[in-house]
Amino acid sequence: MSALTFLQYVNRVIGVLFFVCYFYQMLYLPVALTARKKKKEKAAPLRRYAVLISARNEEAVISKLLESIQAQDYPAELVTTFVVADNCTDNTAQAARDAGAEVYERFDRRLVGKGYALNYLLSHIRETRGDDFFDGYFVFDADNLLRPDYISQINKTFGPDCQIVTSYRNSKNFGDSWISAGCALWFLRDAAFLNAPRARLGISAVVAGTGFVFSREVMLRCNGWPFHSLSEDTEFTVHSVLSGERIGYCGEAEFYDEQPTRFSQSWRQRMRWVRGNAGILCREGGHLAAGLGGKNWLSCLDLLLSIAPAIVLTVMGAVAGAAASILELISGGTILPLLADGLTAFAVPYVLLFLAGAITTATQWRRIHAAPWKKVLYTFTFPFFMLTYVPVTIVSLFGKVEWKPIEHRAAVSIQELK
Q1: In the chain, which residues have pLDDT < 50?
Q2: Taking a C-beta distance cutoff of 8 angstroms, is the pair 392, 125 a contact?
Q3: What is the pLDDT of residue 401?
Q4: 146 φ, ψ (degrees, to nearest 5)
Q5: Residue 296 DSSP class
Q6: CA distances, 404 to each of 11, 67, 125, 217, 265 (Å)
């Protein structure tokens, strides 16, 4: 078998495996596009919430988030905002205090990361307020903005039968670059075409770092926030599903965040996500597989397929391509045919990713804050952004990865965004 034939065979096998592993997400599409019958809303009981914000050198943006929290149409006396200024070297702590938040400062160069900061913040809240004061705990990043009805909408979904709820994640800087648009489109698709149909089918949604709430009972069972991996959101989701929880989704609760605008920023961020997910797969993959025989089996299957195939198959493809190139060179041949075959194989994922981006852009058009021509242009660049996950995955598995903050500068209010 020639090296070219070998590579073609491997590419076909990987393509079939990708299709098999992700075909189920195509089944979500008609569920997401089908109009949902409006149910008569019951009056939700008013609950007391703590808002948790971990901030590292976020002086430029944090006051806008706090303003959007104070502007909620939910009773202000039932919402208390806490900020942990984590290893800050700027005036984040003072900016948060000036904006009305209760602030704790943390300096720890050994235990670095958002997970440690959130646990530190929760420990102080429990010391000063006790374990029974708050009914739920929101988690936001300092660059976020909330629509005025955000907490009210979440409160309708949150309750004894749905003790973790995530929400619709939009972007306040979609049009800044093809990188920010690529990140934003991915999260918009995740909300509208993954989490929304999951919720309608009774499958657990997936938490994506920010914009979610968990109950007092969940906090007590976890004894704070013991999730400290490079992707603590995935760790929390897996832990919740394995514990029998179903994470709910509220598409009416919309918030905005700031996406990286430079490739170097996005590269570091996604390397952390991939390495973190790989570690979680190694630790919890067996437990998720065992959960396929239990009551929560659909959620376990969905999570397993969301985490595992992309990492495993990307590495398989890279190894196969490198092996084929080496064999071809050893045999005295040229790698040009291999490169040509690789470009041919590139066309199929480009088209599929373009369709995913185009459907997302078309259906979420009015919710995307950018010029129309940018919405169209960045639909074509979305596949390129997603395909950069291939080198990101490979480098993250073999290179050094550590948690580093992303600089945020988009200091706009919710009114200016509209």
Answers
A1: none
A2: no
A3: 78
A4: -115, 140
A5: T
A6: 35, 26, 26, 31, 9
First to last CA, the chain: 60
Nearest CA among 70, 49, 54, 52 for reference residue 413: 70
The C-alpha atoms of residue 25 and residue 197 are separated, in whole angstroms, by 9
Are the C-beta atoms of 209 and 200 separated by less than 8 Å? no
**For residues 312 and 317, what is the distance between their CA atoms, to the nearest angstrom?**
9
Same domain for 152 and 81: yes
So what's the pLDDT on residue 57? 93
Predicted confidence at residue 345, as pLDDT, reads: 58
Contacts of 51 (CB under 8 A, 6+ apart): 69, 79, 80, 81, 82, 137, 138, 140
Cβ neighbors of 68 (< 8 A, separation 6 or more) are 144, 145, 146, 147, 148, 413, 414
Place of tokens 């648009």: 181
Number of domains in the chain: 2
Q: Cα(197)–Cα(252) distance, rounded to whole angstroms?
A: 14
Residue 231 structural domain: 47-284
Judgement on whether residues 213 and 324 belong to the same structural domain of the protein: no
| Sign, CA torsion 246/250/255/259 | positive
Where among 284, 307, 327 does a domain terminate? Answer: 284
Element containing residue 234 per DSSP (H, E): helix 232-242
DSSP string, 252-267: EEEEEEPPP-SHHHHH
Full-model pTM: 0.90
Q: Which amino acid is at 144?
A: N
Task: Note the pLDDT of residue 336.
Answer: 57
Whole-number average pLDDT of the chain: 87
Residue 258 and residue 303 in one domain:
no
Half-sphere exposure of residue 92: CA atoms within 13 angstroms, side-chain side = 27
Give the pLDDT confidence score for residue 409 in this predicted structure: 74
Quote the tokens at residue 330. 């050893």
